[in-house]
Amino acid sequence: xxxxxxxxxxxxxxxxxxxxxxxxxxxxxxxxxxxxxxxxxxxxxxxxxxxxxxxxxxxxxxxxxxxxxxxxxxxxxxxxxxxxxxxxxxxxxxxxxxxxxxxxxxxxxxxxxxxxxxxxxxxxxxxxxxxxxxxxxxxxxxxxxxxxxxxxxxxxxxxxxxxxxxxxxxxxxxxxxxxxxxxxxxxxxxxxxxxxxxxxxxxxxxxxxxxxxxxxxxxxxxxxxxxxxxxxxxxxxxxxxxxxxxxxxxxxxxxxxxxxxxxxxxxxxxxxxxxxxxxxxxxxxxxxxxxxxxxxxxxxxxxxxxxxxxxxxxxxxxxxxxxxxxxxxxxxxxxxxxxxxxxxxxxxxxxxxxxxxxxxxxxxxxxxxxxxxxxxxxxxxxxxxxxxxxxxxxxxxxxx
Length: 400
Ligand code: ADP
Ligand code: MG
Hints:
The protein has helices spanning 38-52, 77-87, 100-108, 124-127, 131-138, 172-186, 205-212, 222-231, 246-259, 301-312, 333-348, 358-367, 381-387, 393-399; strands at 18-22, 29-30, 33-34, 56-60, 91-94, 114-117, 143-146, 168-170, 192-196, 217-220, 262-264, 268-272, 283-286, 295-299, 316-320, 352-356, 375-377.
């Protein structure tokens, strides 16, 4: 990982300086208030640290998909109250991102005060990363801080363009995320295991291709394991399976062989004739015994035990995607059991564990081990692109 500057590199006194801070305030809302403020909590240390150093902090964020036009329903003013509550300070809403209104607002803000600019995606220049648009925003700031890893896979004006125009720093959440990801796949302690699960191979092809070249053990679960099993000639019955990707699955297995990566597929599975909670047709069987009218909905207990042994011999784990249809009992059993093993090994100090992905985070929370992993990324798209081995433009811009 090339170097990037952090808040440690800023002077202790930022009095009179205007800091533009890109944060993720794209909160899930219901009836006018946020149902989950994790994103604000993650930006809070950066915001308070800058304010307490005396800076005038201007928060810059997108909210929804207004596609370059003002929509009153997508103003960041909707989240102002939730942000104030989490941050514990009053915030001044500024209904623009540049120009006279911003200039005057900065004049009103005292040192250590916080302002919230409007939805940066109201302007088409944001998503096209327009140079003039970025320059217009940069004109108001002395310093740029990016604390939104979850938006770093987009080369937009507020996530990438600004970093080239102002002295740029990673915020605390961005710093923690980049360090954790580097420990997991940048220069990890070996052996490294990756768990890739979820519904479909097609959504994670690039992830699989990247991982087989980097990790020693690739554990495949979820619906995508069915595609790999089918490619090996196993009859998976009515299971979710992308039969047209058999060649791709075989190519990934060949690539793994050449790279010295062991691919772990389940040898027992949980099957049912109907997809429902605790179905009467539920049974555990060997993968070669799945009937034509059965679906594989989770990997089996023997497979989980074998995978636990793999993790016991590994030093690093990256995990994306549940091992089964975990939203419906008992098809959460394998995911919960392996997550608990990973959490225990992490707590014992023998494993560094990093996980991410929308459903993966939900599954780890369901297993009650979200806080026992070394790092859990809530970044979604950005996390997956990182697992694909891609350079995220928002991160690269901080490093240049
Ligand atoms: P993430 O959001 O963590 O990246 P995905 O979206 O790729 O994860 O996959 C999660 C989904 O995969 C879950 O909704 C889960 O029910 C589904 N899934 C896992 N295993 C199976 C299976 N064997 N059959 C059908 N769906 C599955
Ligand atoms: Mg998902």
